[in-house]
Amino acid sequence: LSLQAYERRFPTCPLIPMFVASDTVNEYKSEDEAIHVIERRCKLDIDAPRLLKKIAGVDYVYFVQKNSLNRRERTLHIEAYNETFSNRVIINEHCCYTVHPDNEDWTCFEQSASLDIKSFFGFESTVEKIAMKQYTSNIKKGKEIIEYYLKQLEEEGITFVPRWTPPVACKLESSTTHTRRPVSPAINIPDSATKEGLNNKEILNTSSSPSEPTAGTPDDKLDADYIKRYLGDLTPMQESCLIRLRQWLQETHKGKIPKDEHILRFLRARDFNIDKAREILCQSLTWRKQHQVDYILDTWNPPQVLQDYYAGGWHHHDKDGRPLYVLRLGQMDTKGLVRALGEEALLRYVLSINEEGLRRCEENTKVFGRPISSWTCLVDLEGLNMRHLWRPGVKALLRIIEVVEANYPETLGRLLILRAPRVFPVLWTLVSPFIDDNTRKKFLIYAGNDYQGPGGLLDYIDKEIIPDFLGGECMCEVPEGGLVPKSLYRTAEELENEDIKLWTETIYQSASVFKGAPHEVLIQIVDASSVITWDFDVCKGDIVFNIFHSKRAPQPPKKDSLGAHSITSPGGNNVQLIDKVWQLGRDYSMVESPLICKEGESVQGSHVTRWPGFYILQWKFHNMPACATTNLPRVDDVLASLQVSSHKCKVMYYTEVIGSEDFRGSMTSLESSHSGFSQLSAATTSSSQSHSSSMISR
């Protein structure tokens, strides 16, 4: 049905003003009508400056578009390239409509393009901007146009197109020869000197009856009642993105799999771009694991200073059923809290508030019988003054915003800012660039007593629960704040030590890896067939993970100077055990193939020891290889190297030695799982040696 709707765009389309006309220049149909290839010459009126058109000497631009419909495979491939100025500008575009592999009622759409501007009368930059603008505009309208023609077909009574079936003669032929007719090949686009365009993927629902069950496993499609009860309204495309991302996590992520509601927040934060959502979600899962955020409500008790002077707390719910958090920022001594507690304790407290918010959303979902995935925040700025613009306090606030934005997307349903004073625009100017555009749209700001008038607080909160300090009748148990006594202030050294302790209250250890200075951990094995297990996250940079064995113990590291074998810093330790005079193969041997780990990845694995002795786990700086055909490095390698400041990497790791019989009793297999958080797809490699039972899968 989608393919029939697409053909209605020709010879011209009123929904695309720039598409003036088109003429068919070539057409081919196979005998069995399974293949239909049509080539058109399209006339476009590009939205370009009149001066540029005058210099170029053209009013219209011509493109050649080739559509290859394969009814047997149920695919439509569209290839387009520019005919006008083809010696100066090369534009190639490819689109593909296919049937969704898990649900035949869905149509998948993929689109990509490349642009190569050789020269254009000195206006190369302008032409590039125009091309990108037109392409972006077409992508945004693509789905709208298809849906327009689908609706037109529906109005004409066409809601179903039967699948193509071969003629009787063709059936007999295919049963004996099993041959396939070729599909028109795609254009081969050279990699060199091209500027990659945008990549767009959409899934359109072409089912005449979406509620009808489809064949397949229960995971192919979410239950409609479940969606309505816990997730809210989802289009077929959004539902498919959720299922695919959840399945990817189940296949690759070895830790705790987040709930559908949480996965959905990350998808919404990236407009259901599954690759972008997957990247930020996996980074967040790594962060949660490193800092044990899942256990923060059960294991961390806020200091008394926070309980007494942090003027914020939960207060019933708004009219939509969202949990309501009240923050009396104007009454809070941000400078005193930072001086008494430090930035890390303040951040951890805000994280505990967000974790409590997630828990309250789940509770309210059950209470109100509808999905509630965000909360409302009411911020009272009465009392805000220049003291709140203290630079370290603003810096702490910006960092808190950055962490919350990255790890709790789409959790803020509405932000009500009340009694904003004259100094507020200054604070807003400092803070607003760090807040996501979608989040900023949820802000409602009231000056003075405007919140008491029409369109004010009563539109969002029931009169019975408006706090007493805002003129309501409900007693609010939020602390009043006030100045933190200076006797509670702590020195910078005390705060620094406390900050390090705060984030290292975990079984994981932190290590820094430098170029030329790997970090190494020594494990002594007495009984052969013991199992060395490891679990580490690459927090910064790219590293190579190695495992070595030696019959003799390495010399203990020296700690008397930075130039020796050991470096200790707040960011993590760096210990080197393998002596520079040792030779690989003589003094020690490699027992596992090297494993390259990218920034943001999480690695878990094990190694069954064959001999007693000393085993060394090594995290080494990964040097980017140069391009094979030239001595010059690739652009991607240069950009990647710039991201690793001062050639420094950081890992968080945990190791343990377990008896072989105990390990087999608790695990189904000896597997090392390498979860590629920053990868767009999962690839698999294996490493096995005669003395090793470990398998590494990416």
UniProtKB/TrEMBL annotation:
User: Does Repeat appear among the keywords?
Assistant: no
Q: Which GO terms describe its cellular component?
A: cytosol; Golgi apparatus
Stretches assigned to the GOLD domain: 504-657
UniProt subcellular location: Cytoplasm; Golgi apparatus
Q: Which GO terms describe its biological process?
A: innate immune response; negative regulation of RIG-I signaling pathway
**UniProt cross-references to SUPFAM superfamilies, sorted A to Z:** CRAL/TRIO domain, CRAL/TRIO N-terminal domain, Supernatant protein factor (SPF), C-terminal domain
Which Pfam family is one of this chain's hits?
Answer: PRELI
- Write down what this protein is called: SEC14-like protein 1
- What taxonomic lineage is listed for the species of origin? Eukaryota, Metazoa, Chordata, Craniata, Vertebrata
Q: Which gene encodes it?
A: Sec14l1_1
